[in-house]
TrEMBL record, chain A:
Residues 1-181 form the Rab-GAP TBC domain. Residues 319-418 form the Rhodanese domain. Pfam families: RabGAP-TBC (PF00566), Rhodanese (PF00581). It comes from Microcebus murinus (Gray mouse lemur). The gene is TBCK. This is TBC1 domain containing kinase. Residues 242-280 are annotated as: Disordered. GO terms for molecular function: GTPase activator activity. Keywords: GTPase activation. The lineage of its organism: Eukaryota, Metazoa, Chordata, Craniata, Vertebrata. It comes from the Eukaryota.
TrEMBL record, chain B:
The GTP bound form of RAB15 interacts with REP15. Interacts (GTP-bound form) with MICAL1, MICAL3, MICALCL, EHBP1 and EHBP1L1. It catalyses: GTP + H2O = GDP + phosphate + H(+). The small GTPases Rab are key regulators of intracellular membrane trafficking, from the formation of transport vesicles to their fusion with membranes. Rabs cycle between an inactive GDP-bound form and an active GTP-bound form that is able to recruit to membranes different sets of downstream effectors directly responsible for vesicle formation, movement, tethering and fusion. RAB15 may act in concert with RAB3A in regulating aspects of synaptic vesicle membrane flow within the nerve terminal. Keywords: Cell membrane, GTP-binding, Hydrolase, Lipoprotein, Magnesium, Membrane, Metal-binding, Methylation, Nucleotide-binding, Prenylation, Protein transport, Transport. The gene is RAB15. GO terms for molecular function: G protein activity; GTP binding; metal ion binding. CDD domains: Rab15. GO terms for cellular component: cilium; endosome membrane; perinuclear region of cytoplasm; plasma membrane. The lineage of its organism: Eukaryota, Metazoa, Chordata, Craniata, Vertebrata. It is found in: Cell membrane. Its cofactor is Mg(2+). Its EC number is 3.6.5.2. This is Ras-related protein Rab-15. GO terms for biological process: positive regulation of regulated secretory pathway; protein transport; Rab protein signal transduction; receptor-mediated endocytosis.
Amino acid sequence: MRGLTWAALLGVEGAIHAKYEAIDKDTPIPTDRQIEVDIPRCHQYDELLSSPEGHAKFRRVLKAWVVSHPDLVYWQGLDSLCAPFLYLNFNNEALAYACMSAFIPKYLYNFFLKDNSHVIQEYLTVFSQMIAFHDPELSNHLNEIGFIPDLYAIPWFLTMFTHVFPLHKIFHLWDTLLLGNSSFPFCIGVAILQQLRDRLLANGFNECILLFSDLPEIDIERCVRESINLFCWTPKSATYRQHAQPPKPAPDSGGVRSSPCFSSECPDPPKTDLSRESIPLNDLKSEVSPRISAEDLIDLCELTVTGHFKTPTKKTKSSKPKLLVVDIRNSEDFIRGHISGSINIPFSAAFTAEGELTQGPCTAVLQNFKGKVIVIVGHVAKHTAEFAAHLVKMKYPRICILDGGINKIKPTGLLTVPSPQI
Amino acid sequence: MAKQYDVLFRLLLIGDSGVGKTCLLCRFTDNEFHSSHISTIGVDFKMKTIEVDGIKVRIQIWDTAGQERYQTITKQYYRRAQGIFLVYDISSERSYQHIMKWVSDVDEYAPEGVQKILIGNKADEEQKRQVGREQGQQLAKEYGMDFYETSACTNLNIKESFTRLTELVLQAHRKELEGLRTRASNELALAELEEEEGKPDGPANSSKTCWC
């Protein structure tokens, strides 16, 4: 039942048997040796997967995948990723193969490139930002001791946790993962860290790496629940990755083809101007907090709907968290035009030499919003990122910055200009 | 809190996939042996404190993925190591041949003065042996390394080889350590070398980014 449900969720359809039959799974390939080394080590506590028949099936499905994906290669860990599909479809190799082939582009797009370092580096950087967004205290500590995701999270994500958990936990976790999009794994990662939070906070680098080399029992039910909660708090564009799978082109509607748009660059073609833009990896790495798109900001502020009055039009968006927009430009710029409802805390005077917030009516509002989503808006990327980093240091959760700054909002006509006081 | 050890060293295990790096490590740190360890993805770690020459040495052992492609990930850990185990499997001629490649990677990425030791693992599998003991000795001699045939399964030469590499590292750092033995204080310790090393490389100064 689960096998078929997963297949449906992954959109597996068509002549999967004919396709699988047609793949040459017998001719020796250079990867054979590695596959042979890995199979006898993969989820061998399980009777099916450790049986000779299981090994033979493992071998065929993995070989079929390698042979039919010439642009990708076998990385150790692919065996673990194959395991849940093989287990669930033990008597239907073709379906196991089809599910794995559908899963990888959706959740692990280009992770199995021969040179995948740009993909992995970006992924881990976004993950770091997610930790800071959801748990600044933990993020501060881990950064201070140098316990970076590169040290522990590669097997998590490369195998979508199949290298980390036994099968029964994987099933539970993936039942939810398959309902989420490709950003959901970040939330799972943060949820795992949060379960170990107290121990991580109490320890230094050496103890932390030891903790992860022998990962303690994780309550997977709790992990799933918390992942969902984290996911709901995460603005869509905060997990934007330039190396993510490009969106499928919209179904051909007549001959109307928009001018060549590099679809990989714009996740949401009709609104490219307000979507996030890709930035160099080093810039991304230098920012503690995630950026969100203007699109997301407008959506979260419900600015598109009759923005003049505060009276909520509909409660349909009640699930969306409230947020505060902090405009860090100087007050002259702010007066000339700003996002409705935003407060002004000029960057130059926001923090004392000790790194504390200066006292004032606006900073008081900011303090009251601690815990809600706070979006920092400016016009100098570096200042905006610095402001956000300050707040993270002060353990403000859910800090993000507006990608492209105030200039992204200007063309929308959504900035309010207060009428001059008489 | 007083440190439970005098110095901290980082040792690294490298070699082809399936030669038994993780098994060696688990035998050494936990005295356990499982014939079917899951593969190592990226890096893994264990720690153990041993006493060598009256000095309490905390060794942090980094276990690496053997598949060649993982080198893009693992090579960044080479430069933090003070000692390296090069491991092959005596029942795999291929893993022995590859030692040359592993040595050249060490030369390229590891710090100068890093101590190396050659290990022929799975010595209990005599009937499957493809690499003679003298071949191992010969190769070790060529590279000026010590050599052990080990078996994680039967616990042959495990403690000996880890202790030996630790001794070599201690000798190589004798100068820095001299103060340590005379002073009882833990203050001046080579361990301090470590503190900043675990941290990620400082963010590369991003170019000016202005949204104006």
